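Hey L., structure's done. Input below.
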Amino acid sequence: MLIRFTGVVLGAVLGTTALAAPAVADPALAASVDVVTAEQASKKIMIFDPAVASWNGSGATKWAWSPTSANGFSAQADGASAEASTSAAGWSNPSDMRLRSNSHHGGQVLVTAASGGFLGVASFPAGKRKWSVAVPGADNPHAAELLPNGNVAAAASHGGWIRLYAASQGPNATKHAQYDLPGGHGVLWDPQGSVLWAIGDNHLVALKVGGTAANPTLSEARKVALPSKGGHDLQPVYGNKDRLWITTSSQVYQFSKSTGAFSTDYAHAASANRTSVKSIGNHPQTGQLIEAKPKAGCRTTWCTDTIDFFGADAKRTRTGAEFYKARFWYAAYQ
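Output:
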């Protein structure tokens, strides 16, 4: 289902902001789905209208959210600052975000992770808590995914694990299955094969989900060596159910599930096949690519203030932003 605001002001929502879109738009991106970002300077998940040429003003911002006590998330206990006293435990350096439609959690939801240790599900657009857990920040969660049965998968790079939480059992559920994967960076549910794909430093794996919703299990069904080191992002190739997007420290690939081959023969590869790409995806209708790649001058070595589009090439910059990932805001698994 394609999700897009129409310029109507949604009004104030606890823990979120929603703003009307301006009339002025960039024709090159006028047909685009909105773009969701993990913006680490403001510690928010932010949705932008890619048809607006400048992301500096409020006019391009469609939605902004963080997990706070006001929208049902438990506040941090350290009391180090006013912000810490209202933000959920583990909410620092947001690292992943995706839209899913899930009947168990009441419809459309944001699934998100933060490197500080936060994993959570919130209703969209209300932003209310559906489920969350805080793991040690030292584990460095990098990705989260929602399975059709309401359970949540997650990847942690420093923890070296892929987990499947029994989030279907309630907002405070912590029971989980674990599969050890060094450098766990990405997870993606594949409804075609009924497997959970996961990417780590050196391998792409397909995990079979067993057990029950209340007591899930994970077992390795397939393991493929990556063609280069430093596996990072893992996304569907919309329009081709056989392929997955894969990024590593040095390249951007498409992986064929049927042949096991990694390729760089996709459209716009001459521009998009770059080093250190943190996130990759394609528009579900036009095929336009979207990437986030670290930029010199950003506060950290992994952030950028600019999101790149290839195929109807464009850039969108927000001065002072620290984007880690950017995706088209689209709910389909594939």
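Helices lie at 82-86, 269-272. Residues 82-86 form the longest helix (5 residues).

-- N.
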